[in-house]
Amino acid sequence: MVDGQLLVVDDEQDITAVLEEHFSARGYAVDVAHNGGDALVLAAARRPDTVVLDITMPGPDGSEVLSRLRAVDPTIAVVMLTGNGDEDLARWLLRAGAFDYIRKPFELDVLERVVTAAVAAGRRV
């Protein structure tokens, strides 16, 4: 049984590979995109339960992708990844509809707990 459909979006292929392997091993179906444009196409086609989304990347950046995802389907939970320690940005992301944000470098177990909660929250909507 699949625990949920995830879309992992990050321009760093090492990160997407680790996250794809980690979450696939835990029963999630995982799609990967390396830029904002591909993320929007995959999200429209696959309707993931949760998107794990980097902020800084080519194409539309993570904040723009978040805005577009929320406009198209507000039930998709979006967990933002950021290497930026800007607390104002973090507050803006939460106001813009992000489920949560995780700072890089992150602990896989912390991200897993947030993703599990995000999938569950999205299913309750």
Short summary of the structure?
The chain is an alpha/beta fold. The protein is 49% helix and 22% strand.
Can you describe what's shown?
The chain has about 120 residues and is of the alpha/beta class. The protein has helices at about 15-25, 35-45, 60-70, 85-95, 110-125; strands at about 5-10, 30-35, 50-55, 75-80, 100-105. The chain has a five-stranded parallel beta sheet with strand order 2-1-3-4-5, sandwiched between helices. Strand 4 (about 75-80), helix 4 and strand 5 (about 100-105) form a beta-alpha-beta unit. The chain is globular, with a radius of gyration of 13 Å. The mean pLDDT is about 90.
Tell me the radius of gyration. Answer: 13 Å
N-to-C series of helices and strands: EHEHEHEHEH
The coarse silhouette is globular
What is the tally of beta strands?
5
Give the distance, in angstroms, between the N- and C-terminal Cα atoms.
21 Å
Which strands sit side by side, in order, in the main sheet? 2-1-3-4-5
Low-confidence segments, given as residue ranges, are none
Indicate the mean pLDDT: 92
Q: Determine the strand fraction and express it as a percent band.
A: 15-25%
Q: Specify the structural class.
A: alpha/beta
Query: What is the makeup of the main sheet?
Result: 5 strands, parallel
Number of H- or I-type helical stretches: 5
Fraction of residues in helices? 40-55%
